[in-house]
Write a structure and sequence with these properties.
- The chain is an alpha/beta fold.
- The protein is built from ten helices and seven strands.
- It has a seven-stranded mixed beta sheet, sandwiched between helices.
- Helix 3 packs across helix 5.
- The protein is globular.
- It starts with a strand and ends with a helix.
């Protein structure tokens, strides 16, 4: 049996389609017959809300509950908090309580691998686990990198979206050198591309020149859609 693959979807800038990428990636894998767990690792609960759970802060059991139990070394059912979605995926939701866990991690022993301990016990139930990270290099995001096999980096074809890319890649490299030697960047995904403008085409060229030799840039690019933005 093939081992479970763990992906972290990460970007230092919000609004680049990170959560949409995570949701659609997971749903498409489920449609192909794979067992998929999506983990919302952003205290804003965007992935949770986008999958129909519109009031994440009302949920009693979330990623914060799971990580809190691990920090306190309490035993719990590994299925705790997991919701089954009609699209055929499972979701471990998230809400604002994860911000409190972030504070608790500061003084926690082996604070970077708390999420890894959970993934170790749950991964045997799935073919793919996809972690939607917060748009920041927080301790929770470092936890995601410490347990992931690959990182997918959504990048909007805009200058501000590129500014944090270098630091993100450096952080991934540091995690690979210390906490998780198997970690790699699967690729950079260009999103919200308006290919009719010279500006967008220049950004794509700049991205390819700066990173194309070292990091895979997916041939598929997600176009900007006014209709999707209006929904």
């Amino acid at each position: 049996m093939e081992m479970c693959k763990v992906y972290a979807i990460a970007s230092q800038k919000g609004g680049v389609g990170k959560t949409t990428t995570a949701a659609n990636f997971g749903i498409e894998l489920a449609r192909e017959g794979y067992k998929v767990l999506l983990i919302d690792a952003d205290a804003q609960g965007s992935l949770t809300a986008s999958l129909g759970y519109t009031e994440p802060d009302r949920l009693d059991e979330t990623l914060a509950t799971v990580m809190g139990n691990i920090i306190k070394e309490e035993r719990f059912d590994k299925r705790l908090g997991i919701l089954h979605h009609q699209e055929g995926i499972d979701l471990l939701p998230c809400n604002i309580e994860l911000s409190g866990i972030e504070c608790s991690l500061v003084s926690t022993f082996c604070r970077e691998v708390v999420l890894s301990k959970y993934i170790y016990h749950i991964k045997h139930d799935y073919d793919y686990i996809i972690i939607d990270c917060a748009p920041s290099l927080s301790l929770i995001t470092i936890n995601a990198f410490a347990t992931a096999d690959k990182v997918i980096i959504p990048v909007q074809a805009a200058y501000l979206s590129l500014k944090g890319l270098e630091q993100l890649i450096k952080t991934i490299s540091k995690v690979k050198g210390g906490l998780n030697t198997k970690l790699g960047i699967d690729g950079i995904l260009i999103t919200m591309l308006n290919n009719r403008t010279n500006y967008a085409r220049e950004i794509v060229t700049l991205l390819d020149e700066a990173y194309g030799g070292a990091v895979h840039i997916y041939d598929s690019k997600i176009p900007f859609s006014v209709r999707a933005a209006e929904r």
